[in-house]
Specification:
Immunoglobulin-like; 2 domains; mainly beta
Length: about 270
Amino acid sequence: MKKKSILLIVGTVLILGVVLYCNLKSDKDPDISKIEHIISVRTNDKKIEASTGSFCYKNGSCIDKIYFQDFKYDIISSFYDNKLYIDNLDGTIKSIELFDYSSKTFIDTKVEFTNEYIVTPCISGPFILKINAIYEGKSIEYYFMTNISKTSGEEINLKIEIKENTLTNVGLTMIVENLSDRDLEYGNPYFIEKYEDGYWKSASTVNGLYFTMPAFGLKKGESKELSINWEYGYGKLKGKYRIVKDFSYKENDDYISFNKYLEFEIK
């Protein structure tokens, strides 16, 4: 009986020792890959935060917990040859993967990068960029959304302004005048950004944004009025904002798109 008691005590001490060792080891050597890291990605006058995490592919195969279909990061726009600058990066970038945002599929194309910036590829549309990095010997990944727009670099002379006495906290009427030598096209979609902390950020929505998708023409020398009511999508606004609207023109057999911005402030 005495021998059994001694063995029980020794066993208990060994177990406690192992548990204590594991706890100490865990405190000294945390799993870096499980810790959330946040970086800033910026271009021109806009920036977003990119967090570490994982996602589920459309076919159902999942990696951890962030659902790719419900990606919530702000959109940051980039144009051909523009660089997306990276701040506060933990670790060293090893590779960058590109995913189509709509189809959730991997895009097999080369994405050039350094540890300070990313050069966006020559494609257009909304995409998810996945940064694969190594930090303290462990793998971590960052995810963020970018809208890559194809542009020739040509400055299109398109005048855009608010029609007098139409600005309210739920909408406005804009006047667009095509002063360029090209015929332009545009659609119904737009989105709103709010100026905060020195940067333009996507404004918070209260409901989903839904648009019909007809295409409208704006011939050279032509002027049109476009009425926008954002109450359903954005609610009643107060502060400094801008409307971001996409226009395009045909060059050879390709369509070149560009954004125009209309700033306004609601007291």
